[in-house]
Structure prediction request, 188 residues.
Amino acid sequence: MSLSELLFGLVAVILGLALTHIAAAVQKLLHAGPNVRWAPEPVLLTAIVLLLIVTVWINQWSLRAITHITTFLTILQVLKMLSVYVAAASTLPERVEPGKPLDLSVHYDETRWLTFGALITAVALFFANSVLQVHAVGGDLRSLVSWFLGPVIFLTLIFVRWRPYNLVALVFLLLWYGYEAWPIDLTS
Prediction:
């Protein structure tokens, strides 16, 4: 087993659990049927988190040539993935009580500090990891915008409850992260 396989196994478990959590939450919401009052904000947020999970997983391919691993960098890797997991686990409600009405916009408002806080933490940890490993932090404007734009918008979404702003910001973030992820192309 190579070092990259060792590290990727751990990453795959955490990201797999995040995807499973989202899938289970969606299944429960769909099963609850008419008792769920859907809202676009948590759906958009879930799409953003799904996109980030897939992008993070694909980007693990860049670590396939690692020849050195430390406990500190492994812990940092785990913390990065756990912050993504926390974001995934808080986008949709975990509990759906049969026969009880559930308003997803209320869930979004009640968990915004946790979800966006986890996303800010994730980006900060990914940035710290990039700085420590001296890669992926380019000097071009686009990469700097990528590192700082998301967390700034996430921070405003914690405090700004005006629904039109939330919708526009979430659509923008989904488009931005999609634009960032679109050119990713893996070759062996």
Q: What stands out?
A: The chain is about 75% helix and 0% strand. The chain has a mean pLDDT of 87. The first strand starts at residue 36 and ends at 37.
